[in-house]
Amino acid sequence: MVRSSGMLGEDGIHVDMNHLKTGEVNMAITFCDGVILGADSRTTTGAYIANRVTDKLTQVHDTIWCCRSGSAADTQAVADIVSYHLGLYGVMHEEGPTTQTAAGLFQELCYDNKDRLSAGMIIAGYDQRNGGNVYSIPLGGSLHKQPYAIGGSGSTYIYGYCDSYWKEGMSEEEGIGFVKGALREAIKWDGSSGGVIRLVVLTNKGAVRHLYLPDQGYKGPGKGA
Amino acid sequence: MTSIGTGYDLQNSVFSPDGRNFQVEYAVKAVENGGTCIGIRCKNGIILATEKIITSKLLRPGANRRIATVDRNIGVVSAGLVPDGRHFVSRARDEASSWRSTYKAPIPVKALAGRLGSYVQAYTLYSSVRPFGITAIVGGWDTDAETKVDGQVGIGPAVGSGGKVDGAKKGGPGLYMIEPSGLYWGYYGAATGKGRQAAKAELEKLDLSSGTLELEAGVMEAARIIYVAHEDSKDKDFELEMSWVSSVDGPTKGRHEQVPSSLLEEAERRAKKAMEGEDEETGSGEGEKMEE
Fold first, then answer.
1. Which of the 8 DSSP states describes residue A208?
2. Nearest Cβ partner of A130 from B103, B111, B146?
3. Contact criterion met (CB below 8 Å) for B67 and B40
4. Measured between CB atoms, does B63 come within 8 Å of chain A?
5. Which residues in chain A have their CB less than 8 angstroms from residue B160's CB?
6. Where does residue A90 rank: exposed (0-12), middle (13-18), buried (19+ CB within 10 A)?
7. Which of A160, A161, B10, B171 has the most C-beta neighbours closer than 10 Å?
8. What kind and span of H or E run contains B220?
């Protein structure tokens, strides 16, 4: 650790430590108007919580976002590269990149460098043509298109919850309730998940962030926070 | 036009005092002598057609095709120096494949035209190379179906994808023509080569901008236009070559393919008949009697 400025950047994610692990639980779902991404906010180095308010929901284009889990450094680097490519694509072509484009770029990076990366990504995005879409790229670099995806160590605790409560074409309110409920369970049972719940809702209207704090019983402050 | 002129025509990339680049203009001359090529942008697809002049009776009919497939959904045809055309196609294939490896999806026709335009333009800049002696027509169909990412595992969920907007832009036909200068435009109907003037006149009659011409009708028109454009070089034998691309629910299922021989023969038969009709009544030239 050479960096003297401590661990946090202003945005709370740019942490530079060896083997910082992020994304102990995160997920993304499709709903009637688009997609919702959600994640806890814990970053750990071993038993130490290096950051309790991490933002694991990372924007790679206007309405294409990803949930990062695994090594903080690896996943940030991968997201930065994809963000660069999508930005370039956006200015060079009239039609912006689609979620598929982003998923393809993520997969290429994750598969080609599978031996060197520890990165589990969920890509979720909205575009007018394809609506909301969710892709999951687990450790080996395979690509899976799913109606919803869960990831991170904490996700093992919520397979049953998600399977029971998942519905096709939920309303925004139902979708937020589903994601928040699932993440609460993961945080409750998984030791390495915790902190606040962050959500991003991606629809035709753009991206809206939500924040839910543990000391308010994960009820608020909510939208736009 | 004598070559012992000012000397501004001897080297690529050199401007004449009045702002012309002679080497590029000479390349255009090479194109103007090439076999006529046309492209038509129809409602539900693209048609490419060319007049392949038979240079020897020893050439096997149907061999040595001039229309090339660049990606599954894109075709290229060019007028001018044939080897330059082949090199151009090879570059186009490289571009299509490089796009696929980066974005895991087929290259949009517009993007391919842009990249090829840049490539051709670069050949007007350096003294070590000469400009392309071709004008190429690039035509294809950008899929309007929901696309999979190349390499995606499984077919994905049957549900999800909420929030689609009705009428959001979705693929469609693309037709571009790239000249030796690197200039390219998108067209409803494109023509180049020896018979381009006659072909353009015919294309303009089709009201292509309304986007109502059906693919099959377009095939008939394309064949006829090539025959009309061939009128001025009647002494030479030629072969008609045609390809088409439709949407996934059209006859080619989104692929660039040769027009099937049965349809090609039918189109040729009608084209010949139309030409005979013209000869009888007015003795060639304009005239718009043409039965469907």
1. E
2. B146
3. no
4. no
5. 30, 131-134, 146-148, 168
6. middle
7. B171
8. helix B215-230
**pLDDT over threshold 70, residue B155:** no
Q: Which of A17-31, A66-80, A101-115, B45-59 has the lowest mean pLDDT?
A: A17-31
Report the distance separating Cα A116 and Cα B228, nearest Å.
63
pTM: 0.86
ipTM of the complex: 0.81
For residue A204, the chain B residues in CB contact (below 8 A) are 163, 165
Query: What pLDDT, in 10s, does the model give residues B92-137?
Result: 999 999 999 999 999 999 999 999 999 999 999 999 999 999 999 9
Alpha carbon distance A119, B179 (integer Å): 47
Q: Convert the pLDDT of each residue in B218-272 to its tens digit.
A: 999 999 999 999 998 888 999 999 999 999 999 999 999 999 999 999 999 999 9
User: B 156-185 residues with CB below 8 A of A?
Assistant: 156-157, 159-165, 168-170
The H or E element containing residue A26 is strand A26-31
Q: Which of residues 76-105 of B touch A (CB under 8 A)?
A: 101-105
Domains of chain A by range and CATH?
2-212 (3.60.20.10)
Nearest to B161 among A94, A131, A142 (CB): A131
